[in-house]
Write a structure and sequence with these properties.
By secondary structure, the chain is α+β, with helices and mostly antiparallel strands. It is built from ten helices and twelve strands. The protein is elongated and about 95 Å long.
Length: 374
């Protein structure tokens, strides 16, 4: 599909706008650049007075070209917007919504939800465009947020139920150790005590993660990945290839190092368990892929920079029966699984104001972690 605008003179950029915008109005319109949604301010005749930066990115062209063009020509069906602007200009409605397809330079058109709204300024109409994919993503993020809140309450209750008997198990192991004379048998009681302490620490983190601000520091995400790689390598020494595709320019982020290690480790261990057959065959592959994401929106907020970390495996994929529930507590795709690993990973990432997304098909499962960068 080609980009379609009304003809402009060759020296368009050397001339002032056909309808100069007062400085005060220009400053007011610039505030739309802070929005993640696509916004154009148009006149009743359909000419563009202002296009925000998100609209520039979506159309793949500069606002200098967009402004003063006919905005209706940016749609596959221009008549829809023309009718809407005619109705707004005639005060037939305060706001109008409809679906349309937006043309893009050198790209296929995208479906958008169009909102045409009158303003208090005479002669100005706001046209807001919500890409259907973005709207679906926002809905999905809201569902994940509600799900995470429910998960948090469930985990807290579960942690309380675990905490009391855990103390009894540790105490009994200590008493048993005092009665045992065989040094070899004492190693077993030490294992019990050590694992009880580890679980106690995890339970404490689940119950009160906000009480540990001193653990937040400058973290290099690649040190986190390397730590996880060494743990995975020790657990699966044969049959698994670990690929590291790092962007070394990623700056350090303010984070809880142990929580990030636990997050990546949980995802990687889940992947390796799904790769059991391929590991046995010797062709399993786990990839750590890090990049900087720019101008991304998640959690209803737009971030200038964000860490984008992918943990990718070539396993069989997530079963359809649990694909929409993999972050629920106690939901597992394997027999004997606890179903808490991904729930904890999601909780830890959300405590860093980030989110986890997953894309899975047979032969490739990709967990993407997004965390804002300073």
């Amino acid at each position: 599909m080609s980009w379609c605008v009304s003809p402009l003179p060759n020296n368009r950029l050397d001339k002032p706008p056909l309808h100069p915008v007062p400085a005060s109005a220009a400053a007011r319109l610039r505030s739309f650049d802070l929005l993640a949604t696509l916004v154009a301010v148009v006149r009743v005749d359909g000419s563009v007075l202002f296009a925000n930066s998100a609209l520039e990115d979506a159309l793949g062209t500069s606002r200098r070209i967009i402004e003063e063009s006919q905005f209706a020509d940016c749609f596959t069906d221009p008549q829809g917007l023309k009718n809407a602007l005619r109705g707004a200009g005639g005060n037939q409605f305060a706001a109008l919504r409809y679906d349309a397809w937006l043309r893009r330079l050198n790209h296929e058109p995208i479906p958008v939800h169009v909102i045409v709204t009158q303003t208090e300024v005479a002669g100005e109409i706001i046209v807001e465009l919500l890409p259907q994919e973005q709207q679906a993503r926002q809905d999905r993020e809201e569902r994940l947020a509600d799900q995470a809140q429910a998960n948090k309450e469930l985990i807290r209750n579960l942690a309380h139920e675990i905490k009391n008997p855990l103390g009894g198990i540790r105490g009994a192991a200590q008493l048993l150790e005092m009665e045992i004379l065989d040094r070899g048998l004492k190693e077993y009681t030490q294992v019990i005590i050590h694992e009880a302490d580890r679980l106690q620490t995890l339970v404490d983190r689940l119950l009160a993660p906000h009480r540990l601000p001193h653990l937040v520091g400058d973290v290099n995400i690649h040190e986190v990945c390397e730590r996880v790689r060494s743990l995975i390598g020790a657990e699966f020494p044969r049959g698994l290839k670990v690929v590291r595709d790092y962007d070394t320019s990623i700056p350090e982020l303010r984070a809880d190092r142990e929580q990030l290690i636990q997050t990546v480790l949980n995802i990687a261990q889940n992947a390796c368990q799904a790769l059991a057959e391929r590991i046995a065959a010797g062709d399993a592959c786990l990839t750590f892929h890090s990049r900087i994401a720019r101008g991304v929106t998640f959690g209803k907020q737009r971030y200038r920079l964000a860490l984008e970390l992918h943990v990718i495996d070539n396993g069989p994929g997530i079963p359809d029966s649990i694909r929409d529930r993999i972050f629920y507590p106690l939901v597992s795709g394997r027999e004997g699984g606890s179903g808490l690993g991904l729930t904890l990973a999601q909780t830890f990432v959300q405590q860093h104001h980030g989110m986890i997304e997953v894309d899975s098909v047979p032969g490739r499962t990709d967990f993407k972690i997004l965390i804002p960068l300073p």
